[in-house]
Protein: non-specific serine/threonine protein kinase
Organism: Turnera subulata
Amino acid sequence: MQNFYWFKQISNNVKSERRLSLGEYRRAVSWSKYLVSSGAEIKGEGEEEWSADMSQLFIGVKFASGRHSRIYRGIYKQKDVAIKLISQPEEDENLARMLEQQFTSEVALLFRLRHPNIIAFVAACKKPPVFCIITEYLAGGSLRKFLHQQEPHSIPLDLVLKLALDIAHGMKYLHSQGILHRDLKSENLLLGEDMSVKVADFGISCLETQCGSAKGFTGTYRWMAPEMIKEKHHTKKVDVYSFGIVLWELLTALTPFDNMTPEQAAFAVCQKNARPPLPPACPMAFRRLINRCWSSNPHKRPHFDEIVAILEGYSESLEQDPEFFSSYKPPRDHTLFGCFPKFSSGCRSTCVKD
Ligand SMILES: Nc1ncnc2c1ncn2[C@@H]1O[C@H](COP(=O)(O)OP(=O)(O)OP(=O)(O)O)[C@@H](O)[C@H]1O
């Protein structure tokens, strides 16, 4: 706590506990003007349960940004937290409405989730045109940042397996609650100090029964399943597709389709059935799983229950035999492959022919 340079205590509007640049001061004041409680705001449905006690919230330095948000470190009730501040633009009513809907839905979903591999919700505040979501702070940052720091561009296979299992456990739990994440990617996976991974950012998540079509969607094309790119009806299997891309990231530490714009990547995935190329050294065990996860046919993608079971099997085998990944022989059931024998002559690693 001593290492923090607090510039703001929201409750009593203390303006500055450190020297701020003029820009920082203006920004801090412009947020605080909205966040300081007037005591007169109308509380929406369920709001009493998650509404933050502003007298207990300290906002520290900004450490990240999203498309429409800024993320600050902070302390809430003596706990280290991350505070996501979302501000509605005055000039764009549609965007303002969409951000409010996203906030409401993210809070409602986060509020009911409790799992070691899902970011823990702490509280939220709704003071239009500013909203805040307070969650536990994860010191390791995003998985994307971690992967991009790796030299050479790969991480040991036992770590790939551990990280993949954490993500799969989180996703299995999420799906067991009937929730689709819809924006699973390394940027939305956060690392704890102990290298545990937690799934975060539920801004465009939905209850499976209420997801509708993906019309007007703002997810991320490089990780997006073809049926979602095409704005078709979609199911939990869109997250399995994205998990396949995340597995590829874990094995390569690269950005998928980095030689293309997101729109070109979307076109290549839908029209040419393209996938990021698996490196020749990619162990067969992962190659098979990835090919199944990013199959263009959602029905051929496994459920997360099965993914967890497969990865746990790999983990046990690796404990017994450190050479497991090089000695692994796939089961003879060829229907489990992304590439079927009738296509195998022309099947390249970048292309799933099913
Ligand atoms: N609880 C947290 N602990 C540590 N870092 C966090 C936390 N929450 C967010 N971050 C960091 O902030 C970044 C953006 O957060 P988040 O994805 O929740 O914002 P967003 O507004 O939904 O972004 P976008 O809409 O662009 O996806 C994350 O990639 C991560 O680096």
